[in-house]
Design brief:
Elements lengths: L1 H12 L14 H16 L3 E11 L4 E2 L2 H4 L3 E17 L6 E7 L10 E4 L4 E7 L2 E6 L3 H4 L6 E7 L7 E2 L18 E4 L12 E3 L5 H10 L30 H10 L3 E12 L9 E10 L5 H9 L2 E3 L2 H12 L4 E2 L1 E2 L9 E3 L5 E3 L12 H16 L15 E2 L6 E4 L3 E2 L1 H6 L1 H4 L16 E7 L6 H11 L6 E7 L2 E2 L16 H8 L1 H10 L7 E2 L2 H25 L16 H22 L3 H24 L1
Parallel strand pairs: 4-7, 5-10, 14-23, 22-23, 24-25
Antiparallel strand pairs: 1-2, 1-13, 3-4, 3-9, 3-12, 5-11, 6-7, 6-8, 13-15, 16-21, 17-18, 17-20, 19-20
Length: 618
């Protein structure tokens, strides 16, 4: 039903697609090419399993890749807290507390350390009858409007290893009396540009926290479950509630314990799930990754060879993203998707479709493994479908130990399916060798957010395979907003139905509006009134000109097809103008300047009507 509806809508819009021979990502053939790509990356050591803090959607139950996260940021205002952590012993004196600042109070129960920058100047400040440690340059801002006095100053390195009292007692039982916890550690990423210059460290809930935690041998103290709810039985306020919703109860508890200096509303960017709009949590969990950091140089070099429109996108939004590329969190804890083709023993020895990494180094080993699996699947299951649950009926024995292996439960990020398109659409290398496949597009176009989506994943897979850039030219356009410049949303009631607009104004008018309204990269305010202007300015003018031609052309049926040079000056001018416009439009299109080309055509239509036809009538 929906397929038919989509195809009918596509035809109605005049959208140029190869519907009769479309590639479909869920077919076995497409999946085999995706697996082949992954096999090449696994063979190179670029596919690995690790424990990393990943942006996690508790509602969808899965982690998100960095380019997915980048699509869902929103500006929100929420309470941030200044929390005192009393030192137990230090050279700073008695009754001194470390003052930390955070916009995520729900992470405080997972605190195991406080980070300072070894080279920053810190101060012991007296205020509210207490002594606090803050960055010296932040004291005026932190205690703004309150009397305070600086008692002494020192460098961050001077208090490294100082210990403090934990916020919560119960979670300590999870730490097995680890002596490395609840102490000050040094970290160069700590800055004095906001907060207090001291950072509360929760390796379970922060990427930088986790990296420092590995270096400092800090434990990962997990205080929420996979549904994003505060674990019960740990004595944490708000237990059983979604972490972000428990913030208020944690703040109340901090105040009751005398550990809260103050709260203040903070406006900042926060990531939401691009699928369901749930606030993301940064969560430490085992995942599979593609080591994109190892191919960063090729990524950056390939992007330099691409012609971007607007031009600044190449070194700006896209270039900066690639220069700071992170490893791709590939696996997803979902039911539907391309299954991850990793089979593992109980003691976590891994194989790719039953073969070891050493065996995969042989020429053609990955292709043979996939072809053998195709046969094995048809023999051992009632359904040849590669998806869950059918694929999970297939088991292997480890080729070296003989132990039984089961497939890991994860599926692959759907964006990997999208980025694999140049290969998988041609069933590379099974139906077409890689060196014969059309792996480089002349031109692609999508919205600006695809610099974190399809534009990126196409480049990522090409670079990881050691190939050239996957497209030569790209036009990226900004998002379509409502007539007031606001994002369209069903909840706001400002969404416009494109089919209804097409029925009322015609899709040619809509298409011409987008061709001419603004240059790529500029947000578009969509106002139906503008479509009326487009109709009148372009299409009514063109229709009137054609009607004039039909009315006064002597006898088009007797046209011999023989061209004779025009004698009248107006006719000569029109042909010269037409040749000039043809050259200019062609030049613009060859440079992928679609807006300039369309506007030039519209100017000619206006000249034809208001100059040539009007003067010819006179």
């Amino acid at each position: 039903e929906f397929k038919t509806e989509f195809e009918e809508m596509t035809e109605r819009m005049g959208y140029w697609l190869e519907i009769e021979d479309a590639y479909i990502t869920y077919t076995n053939e497409y999946i085999e090419s995706v697996w082949w790509i992954l096999g090449q990356l696994w063979k190179k050591g670029l596919l690995y399993r690790g424990h990393k803090v990943v942006p996690y959607c508790a509602r969808c139950g899965t982690g998100l890749s960095s380019h997915e996260v980048a699509q869902g940021y929103k500006k929100i205002t929420e309470p941030s807290v200044y929390v005192a952590l009393p030192l137990t012993e230090s050279t700073l004196g008695e009754n001194v507390s470390l003052l930390v600042w955070t916009t995520t109070p729900w992470t405080l129960p997972g605190n195991v350390a406080v980070a300072v920058n070894p080279t920053i100047s810190y101060a012991v400040v007296r205020s509210h009858g207490q002594l606090f440690v803050v960055a010296e340059s932040r004291a005026a801002e932190v205690f703004k409007g309150e009397p305070y006095k600086t008692e002494k100053t020192f460098l961050g390195k001077d208090i490294i290893a100082a210990e403090y009292k934990p916020l919560f007692n119960k979670p300590i039982e999870q730490l097995a009396k680890d002596e490395s916890v609840f102490r000050v550690v040094g970290a160069e990423f700590v800055e004095a540009s906001e907060g207090t210059g001291l950072v509360h460290m929760a390796p379970a809930f922060g990427e930088e926290d986790n990296e420092v935690g590995k270096k400092e041998n800090l434990p990962v103290l997990t205080t929420i479950d996979t549904e994003g709810k505060i674990l019960k039985g740990l004595g944490i306020p708000g237990e059983g509630e979604f972490a972000k919703e428990a913030d208020s109860k944690i703040i109340e508890w901090l105040e009751s314990e005398g550990l809260l200096l103050k709260t203040e509303d903070t406006t900042h960017e926060y990531p939401f799930c691009w699928r369901c709009d749930t606030p993301l949590l940064y969560y430490a969990k085992p995942s599979y990754f593609i080591a994109m950091t190892k191919v960063k140089e090729r990524l950056v070099a390939n992007n330099k060879n691409i012609e971007w429109v607007p031009e600044y996108m190449r070194d700006g939004r896209m270039g900066e993203w690639l220069a700071n590329v992170k490893d791709w969190a590939l696996s997803r804890d979902r039911y539907w998707g391309t299954p991850l083709p990793i089979w593992r023993t109980e003691d976590e020895q891994e194989t790719f479709l039953g073969i070891t990494q050493n065996a995969a180094q042989e020429d053609g080993a990955i292709v043979k493994a996939i072809e053998d699996f195709r046969t094995k699947m048809s023999k051992e299951t009632d359904d040849g479908d590669y998806h869950i649950p059918f694929i999970d009926d297939v088991t292997f024995k480890h080729p070296e130990t003989g132990e039984k292996m089961k497939r890991v439960p994860e599926v692959i990020d759907v964006w990997f399916d999208a980025g694999a398109m140049p290969y998988a659409q041609a069933h590379v290398p099974f139906d077409m060798p890689e060196d014969k496949a059309p792996l480089q597009a002349d031109y692609i176009s999508e919205a600006i957010d695809q610099t974190r989506g399809w534009f990126y994943t196409l480049q990522a897979i090409a670079a990881a395979l050691g190939n050239d850039e996957p497209y030569k030219h790209v036009i990226t356009f900004a998002h379509v907003l409502d007539k007031n410049g606001k994002k369209m949303s069903k909840s706001k009631g400002n969404v416009i139905n494109p089919i209804e607009m097409g029925d009322e104004f015609g899709f040619d008018s809509i298409r011409w509006f987008f061709y001419t309204v603004s240059q790529p990269g500029t947000p578009i305010k969509f106002n139906p009134d503008e479509l009326k202007k487009v109709q009148r300015r372009m299409f009514n003018t063109l229709l009137n000109s054609f009607s004039f031609y039909r009315l006064y052309n002597q006898d088009p049926q007797k046209d011999t097809g023989v061209s004779t040079p025009p004698k009248h000056e107006m006719d000569q001018w029109l042909l010269a103008r037409l040749n000039e416009v043809g050259y200019e439009v062609t030049t613009h299109l060859e440079e992928y300047q679609v807006v300039n080309a369309a506007r030039r055509l519209e100017e000619f239509v206006n000249e034809l009507s208001t100059k040539y036809i009007q003067l010819s009538r006179d």
